[in-house]
Design a protein that fits this description.
The protein is built from no helices and 17 strands. It has 227 residues and is mostly beta strands. The strands form three sheets. Strands 3, 5, 6, 9, 13, 14, 15 and 17 form an eight-stranded antiparallel sheet that branches. A hairpin with a 2-residue loop joins strand 13 and strand 14.
Length: 227
């Protein structure tokens, strides 16, 4: 039990360990990738692979929007990943949304209007491999992604990602890390018209006919919200 403003409330804590170990627990909520399989490696992993132009391959963990982002929440999402971005380019997203589906990444290479917290790579071809911290509120903070970017992450290289959040009185504070380096901090992210219930998803959307591959390893999520 926790005490807030003199009243007692029940905190709901969710903790999931290494949920990218195998495909069990992940459900299709968009287009289906040509390949969505577990990886034969120590600790397991997931592999999404597709070469269908403008397919939006979305997989969610569990069923429904199970993570509540509101005043009093706090938590983190961390994972390791490796990707292949062909010369035709491609789009990828890992994180939370209330607008999962086959149009999550539009054919024009933008995130659908909705509420999102995550990391995205949009229309990344050749050397333009920048992952962007995403904190989007369709109601009051419109825009595809925040202005800061991580810089280039070479294709085929394993990198670690982490997102932390805390629901303060003035709004959400969200921190984005790549390879343990803080990339951006978003503060005062308004609750107005936001979520608050979001789904955890992984998504790829290829361009052209080249194969687009995303591998995810060692994904952990911890989230506490006021019920």
């Amino acid at each position: 039990m926790s005490v807030i403003s003199g009243g007692r409330v029940n905190p709901l804590t969710q903790a999931f360990g290494n949920i990218a170990r195998r495909v069990a627990g992940w459900v299709t909520i968009g287009d289906s990738a040509t390949t969505f399989v577990g990886l034969d490696r120590s600790g397991g992993g997931l592999k999404l692979e597709d070469a269908t132009d403008n397919d939006c391959n979305v997989y969610g963990y569990g069923e429904g929007e199970g993570f509540k982002f509101a005043l009093g929440c706090r938590g983190s999402l961390k994972w390791k990943q490796k990707y292949t971005s062909p010369t035709d380019g491609g789009n990828m997203f890992v994180g939370f949304t209330d607008t999962a589906g086959a149009t999550f990444i539009a054919d024009g290479d933008t995130l659908v209007s909705g509420d999102h917290i995550g990391m995205a790579m949009l229309t990344a071809a050749d050397a333009s491999r920048a992952w962007l911290p995403v904190a989007q509120n369709a109601g009051t903070n419109s825009g595809t992604a925040t202005s800061a970017i991580s810089g280039t992450i070479s294709t085929g290289v394993e990198s670690s990602f982490r997102i932390e959040w805390e629901g303060l009185t003035a709004g959400l504070t969200i921190r984005f890390y790549i390879d343990e380096v803080l990339q951006q901090t978003v503060t005062g992210f308004t609750y107005t018209s936001f979520g608050p219930e979001l789904s955890l998803i992984i998504c790829t959307s290829p361009k052209g006919s080249s194969t687009n591959t995303l591998e995810i390893y060692e994904m952990f999520v911890s989230h506490t919200a006021i019920s």
